[in-house]
Amino acid sequence: FINSEAGWKTKSKVTQARSNENVFPAPADIFAAFNDNVLPIDKVKLVIVGQDPYPTIGHANGYAFSSSGNIVPYSLGIIFEEIVNTIYPYMNNDTEMKKKYFGSPNLMNWTKQGILLMNRVLTVSEGKPDSHKDFGWQIFTDSVIRELNNSLKPIVFLLMGSNAKSVAGFITNPIHKIIQTNHPASEAYKPGSFIGCGCFLDVYESLGKFGHGESIKMNISEWIEQSYFCSMTQKMIVNKRYPVLKTYAESIKANIRLLMEFNYDVIIDFKTLND
Questions:
Q1: Which pLDDT score is estimated for 272?
Q2: Phi first, then psi: what are they for 179, rounded to 5°?
Q3: CA neighbor of 44 nearest in space, from 114, 105, 91, 111
Q4: Which residues of 139-159 are buried (b: 16+ CB within 10 A; e: fewer)?
Q5: Which of 18, 41, 43, 219 has the greatest number of beta carbons closer than 10 A?
Q6: In the chain, alpha helices (H)
Q7: Could you report the average pLDDT of every consecutive run of 10 residues in the chain (275 residues)?
Q8: In this predicted structure, what is the pLDDT of residue 16?
């Protein structure tokens, strides 16, 4: 792309912008999400598409919604809230555990698990969201989506916001799953526009159908300790505060086997879960 005419035009616009103002991310990080040494294209299981990098100094690191800063940016905080509410609800009763697994803004462990975090536009000027929307980055990111569309393995595409949704037309392979939501930042001016949408529950169910359910865990530490997960799952089920979907049957059976391995005193009989 960089060596093409379109790429040269985009590079020139970014260079010009840098001469007048701060532009994020740093040049070396612009294509970070597409580094084949970090996440080979044939290992992609989930694609999360956002709008453009964080326009605040110290945040943008080349991965959509991820940050190199010390605090969790607003959009990522909203994403974490939705994930915890729908995938790990028991953590809402355990502040320390929630902080441990969802307290860092760096999402590199997501990438290691097969999650491509890409923005529609790859650069932005400080304090000016969507300021580089006309720089031509879409030519590159459209090509990425088209390439992923050709994959012979099913991929889940989570498109967040109107800019991200514009790539939906390139995902024509029927083996893939498209999930579209409002941008997490919309929660700031329209509460309820993202929180409660259930997109990550949909993501998990789709990954499970594709055979990826057990290989992706959306938390910053990469893996929640199985003993803790089993313990909390058992408590939530017993207290009838944690719904067990039929699509989770295999996962629940696996957790019960783990409970046995950890020698818990009380083991849930799988046959009761259908009641």
A1: 47
A2: -125, 125
A3: 114
A4: ebbeebbeebbeeeebbbbbb
A5: 219
A6: 5-20, 74-86, 95-102, 108-112, 137-149, 162-165, 199-209, 226-238, 249-261
A7: 95 96 96 92 95 95 93 95 85 82 88 93 96 97 97 95 96 97 95 93 84 63 55 61 52 57 50 45
A8: 97
Measured between alpha carbons, how far is 134 from 142 in angstroms, rounded to an integer? 14
Burial annotation 204-230 (CB, 10 A radius, 16+ → b, else e): bbbbbebebbeebbbbbeeebeeeebb
Instruction: Using alpha carbons, list the distances in angstroms from residue 215 to 66, 152, 159.
Output: 20, 19, 21
Contact 23, 126 (CB under 8 A): yes
- Cα distance between residue 119 and residue 10, in whole Å: 15
Catalytic residue, candidates 29, 52, 94, 265 = 52
Residue 113, SS3?
coil
The count of other CB atoms within 10 Å of the CB of residue 69 is 17
pTM equals 0.81
Check residue 211 and give its pLDDT. 76
